[in-house]
Structures are given as C-alpha cells and as structure tokens.
Amino acid sequence: MARPDATPLLEVCDVVKSFGAVAAVRGASFPLYAGEAHALVGENGAGKSTVVKVLAGVHRPDGGTLRVDGKPVDFGTPGEAKAAGIAVIYQEPTLFPDLSVAENIAMGRHPTGRFGGIDRAAMRREALALFERLGVRVDPARPARGLSIADQQIVEIAKALAGRARVLVMDEPTAALTGVEVERLFAVVRALRADGAAVLFISHRFEEITALCQRVTIMRDGAHVSTDPIEDLTVPEMVRRMVGRELGALFPKQDVDPGEVVLEVSGLRRAGVFTDVTFQVRAGEIVALAGLVGSGRSEVVQAVFGVDGRDGGTVHVDGRAVRAGSPRAAMAAGMALVPEDRRQQGLVMDLSIQRNVTLPRSGALAGFGLLLGGAERREARRWTERLQTKYGDLGDPVGTLSGGNQQKVVLAKWLATRPRVLIVDEPTRGIDVGTKAEVHRLMSELAADGVAVVMVSSELPEVLGMADRVLVMREGRVVAEIDRADASEEAVMFAAMGQGVVA
Fold it and tell me: Count of CB atoms within 10 A of residue 159's CB?
C-alpha cells in the first residue's frame, strides 16, 4: 500500500455538484495512489456516478478541486480528462461494433505508414503488446461486434492504456460478468496496479472489494463519510457507514401461513428453452426459481406473464386460465412482472417518474379519454413515498434517477395495479445493500397481505433468506423443490449442477 505521505496520482478535494435544487455531491474527498485499487462505495443515490462524471470531464464541479500529481486541474471536456491520464471504463462499453479490435484501440491516434496511409500491421502489433501486458488473449483483427461484455471491457482498458492513462475508473465493471470473467478482470486490475496505475473501483459486491482493493472511500447522501485502508474495515462496519444506521435483518421475512393456490403453472414448455415446468404458488407464499445462468428461469417467468410465447402448458390465476402470449391478459388476471432489465424492459427512460408509475393504470386514471394530471400525480406520489424513493420532482425523467430508485419506480408501477401475483426477476441486482433490505421488506409485506410472489434470483443468500420454497432449474427443467427449512447453499447448488439434493 502507498505511503500516506506520498503524492496521489489523483486527488478529489471537497468536490461539490448540484443539479438544480438537488445536491448530488456535497463534499467528496479521496486520494488515488499509484499501484492501488481504491473502492468507492455507497448506496444508490450516494453520489458515486456524479463523482465519476466529474473525473471524466462530463460535469464540471460547482466547488472543490481536482489535483493531478499535486497540481489543480479543471476539466471542461472529456478530452481534457483523457489528456490528463484519466480513463473511465463503464459497465456497458461503447466500442464501434463494425471496426476491428485493433481499430477501436487506435481510434483517434492511428499509426501511419510511409505514404500517409494507416499502418494496420503497427495497429495489430500495438494491440497484441497491450493484451500481453494485461495477460489476456483477444484477436486484434476480429470485429468488436459479437464480443462478450467481458472482452469489450478488456478492449476498453487496452484503449485507455494506449492513450497513456494512469488512472482507471471502473464503474460497476462486474455487474454483467460470469465468475470466470470476473476473475480474469481482477487479474487485469492486478496487472494494472503492478504497472503503477491507480484504479478507482465502484461495486456493490463486498467480496470483490475485500479481494481487490487496498483502500475504501464511503459516501452517503452525496457526502464523504470516511476513507480507510481495507484491513481497518469489516463488512458490517462498511454497511453501517453507508446507510447511516445499524442495518436490521437484510432478509426481513415474515412467517405467513399460505392460503389458497393463486398461481398454477402446468406442463409449460417451449422448444429448446424449457420443458414440463409445473408449480403452484399460494397466497402469502414466496417461491424462488434458482439455478445457474442459462437454466431457463427468466424465460419461464417471461412465458408465464405472456411476454414470450409457449408451445404448450397452461397458466391459471385463481382457477382461471390465462391466454398465452398476452401480457394484457396476464395483467387483467392480476399478474405483474418486474423484469430483470429495468432500463430496457421496465421503464420508459425519457418519460417522467409519475408517468412511468401510472402507465399500467392510465385508463383507470383518465376522464373522458384524457389522462388527469392531478390523479396521476397523487397516485405516483402515494407509491413512490411508500417505497421511499428519492427524486427531485415527479415530473423529472425517470432516467435521471439512480439505479436503486429506478428499481423502486418499476416496483411502484406494478404495485399500483394491486396484483394477485407478483413476479420479480433479479429484484435487487445492481442496487445497494440498504435498498436491498427495503425491497426485501416490501416483498415480505406483500406476501403477508396475501400476494403470491415468484422470485428469480442468482444470489443464493437472497433465495435462502426470502423464499418459502425453492424450485431449482437445470437445463430448462425443474429438478428439485426444497422447502425453506431444508434449503441450504449446498442443497441448491448440488441440484443446479445435476448432483441431486444433499441431505
């Protein structure tokens, strides 16, 4: 770890940034040292993304100072930040899909040959040297289109190094990666540290922070809370500082005596995707679909709700058949679906918060064919307040909210329909620990009110903490049903991997 008296490569000093009446950052401060990975953590809405955009030159701070090598800098554009050696690797890379990997890396600084043309051999050699430096293998000649998210991130890192970046900011880089891909990314980050780069690492996953980072800065409500060496912190202490209070049970599951069967799925099948899926969910019950990526969990709930078609099988709500392939029929039957991809499938990002909340009920809120603004606003306020959503104004575009608050708007939208069956696909992916606890509390309250809840989750602690029953899927089939009392990580994983259920 760098000496505390060493000059940081980059230092953020009391940075302040507001958008209208909303203070997004209220005094962020931390140093980034050469050879270190530094975690920046906080709840959604804590100001992390705004700090990243200030470092990237997208936003100019209203107050405070940025220092590079001890000297004040003022970035007016992203180009100025890049020229100072700062590169941001976003969760979703933005490569030119029809250009080759080597061309993407050399973009804006293509080497030229004797007669002024682009020297493609030199581009390829540079790309290969960068990948060798990072300890990875990627073909420089292949088009960027079709690369996995993990490989796209590696290309972005190589591109940053080609531009002589010394500070790399990685904003939720592992959210869409598999375990193997995460390990490869970590190896790359360690190589960057060994080369003397400073890495700012933003993640909600504490196991990643403790495995990779040497220092941690915690933010809350836009303000700096603390900066400490990782060995001086425990996970419970980080959580307490993030949320500003002792966090109660992360999985506040209420004990409920299940009622009558509300949702009944029988013999559901779709060629090449899932086969003979059968299960029931009772009023007041939370049933989790667990399994490895590609097991068919999300595809099943999409078919149950009618987003995707099905080749056979039936879906009944309260004993009444629901027409296949029709989300409208599913909604009319009392079903609601909170999808895995909230930005693409759950929200209309350019519409206001209140319009997103009331979209499924726009007909009920209309008078003489016109949507009544007052009724819409009252309905949206009722549900956003219940979910403790943080926003400036209900008329603001929903795309201006943090990820966790966007998830709350998706939940508010469907809870406003007062569903009999609530299907939630990865309900807490990409949101902070405090918001996770709130979402879990809400799910538990809904079940206690008699709602039948179906939850798809890749997080085993969430499955074990919230489910009354666990249905384990493998290769498109339900291979095990495990009651809450018998559920364990070992039992679920053994079934998911085709090894049967352990005693």
Answer: 23
